[in-house]
Amino acid sequence: MRTADRKKLWALAGGRCSLCRVQYSEAALQEAHIVAPEASGPRGDDPLPPARREDYENYILLCPNCHITHDDADVNAWPVPRLKQLKAEHEEWVRSSVAAINVLAGIVRVRAPGGDDVAGARIRRPTRIAPGTSISVDAPGARRVTGVR
After folding, report:
1. pTM for this one?
2. For residue 103, pLDDT beyond 90
3. 90 closest CA partner among 68, 124, 61, 69
């Protein structure tokens, strides 16, 4: 595999196994062929030309356990389209996991009379609260009040 393809594989997989998502720090990950380079190997009968079998598109990053499973245990359970789909889904998961962090800044004032559970700000994505941000909640009669949740 070319150095540029190797770097792309590791970066887009986020240094994690594309199947079980174990991190590189927890297992020695392996650059695995989707279609074997030789016709006698796993999925080697695929029509992918031999010259393209060392391209990024034909590799998936796997931990040793998943590599054994997808090559040795039951090759028929891991056809080329399924492996490519899992690789694409994993790369999308990595992309969405490292998306830009939201920033909460300014003044947030919440008035909620009679609420049961009141929060000034509910954080659902990675968010940084900027220095100087003010969150105040006025919720008379509320059972529970939080500034940020």
Report:
1. 0.65
2. no
3. 61
